[in-house]
Amino acid sequence: MDVDATEPDQRVVEAAAQLPARGGVTGWAALWWLGGVWFTGVGSDGDLRPVPLAVGSGHRARPRAGLEISQEVVTPANLTRSGGVRLTGALWSVSYSMRKAASDEAAVVAFDMAAFNDLVSVAELRAFVDRHLVARQGVERVRRVLGFLDENCWSPMEPVLQLTWERELGVLPLMNRPVFDQRGRFIGTPDAIDPAAGVYGMYDGGLHLAGSVRHRDIEKEAAYRSIGLEGATMMASDLADRSPFSRRLREAYGRASRLPSAERRWTIDPPRSWKDTTTVDARRALSTYDRERLLAHRRRAA
């Protein structure tokens, strides 16, 4: 059988074969190997990103096609082995990705997508920064964005929506919080919500233009409106210029502010039987049965 050299697994294995006696695969490639489904090594432009290797300062770095060489010294405590591949641990790998990211926004996306698969938590990263990254290049960026990290974003565009919302209005919305009516009946899970204002937000990529998906979106919008929530949608076309989304968001706040409180027939407080999956700690604490039932969609197929 022919091996596809563009597959992340194959790229990680081939890169790991180039490692010296010490060091490990790091960054996006290590996060993919550890189960991070969003770390495919493909950039937003569709090009393959180089596989980062942490080789240490004592190794003579030789540029190789498809590899990104880091000569930072990685202590043994931050190295691990998984499936026969030497890696930097999840916290080192995500902090490396954040420090090397093109922007603060991209750094937040990297963390949020690692948290999607419970590889890291905000509390763990905060402690890790103080313990292991004090003098590392780029550590100030990690410190700067700590307050904007979220453990419950479900796709790379959701942190973009959240950060745009915060920049425009100074409000950091909650991500993927289930919404219920006053009887505790589940209504839906908007991508973002400001519960104080009664405004939700959704990201609408190209997939949402398809007939059945768009139909479900319209039905969901109507359901939210019927219980007193006002919404704004970020389109894929808004990424280059965020002002159209900002306008729609402000209009939603205006509509929500005119809605009588009696018409707000919703809550984000779940009924007692509801299993919380909004934080890394909550997801890690689930039983095996509940993890399979509630989180199977977060894992890639074996």
Structural overview:
The protein has 302 residues and is an alpha+beta fold. It has 2 domains: 8-148, no CATH class; 157-267, 3-Layer(aba) Sandwich (Endonuclease, Chain A), CATH 3.40.960.10. It has 11 helices and 12 strands. It has helices at 8-16, 27-33, 90-100, 104-116, 122-132, 139-145, 157-169, 211-226, 243-257, 280-284, 288-295, and strands spanning 24-25, 51-54, 67-70, 79-82, 85-88, 174-175, 179-181, 186-188, 192-194, 199-204, 230-235, 266-267. The strands form 4 sheets. It has a 4-stranded mixed beta sheet with strand order 6-9-10-11. Strands 1-2-3 form a 3-stranded mixed beta sheet. Helix 3 (90-100) packs antiparallel against helix 4 (104-116) and helix 4 crosses helix 6 (139-145). It is elongated and about 70 Å long. It starts with 7 loop residues before the first helix and ends in a 7-residue tail after the last helix. The relative contact order is 0.09.
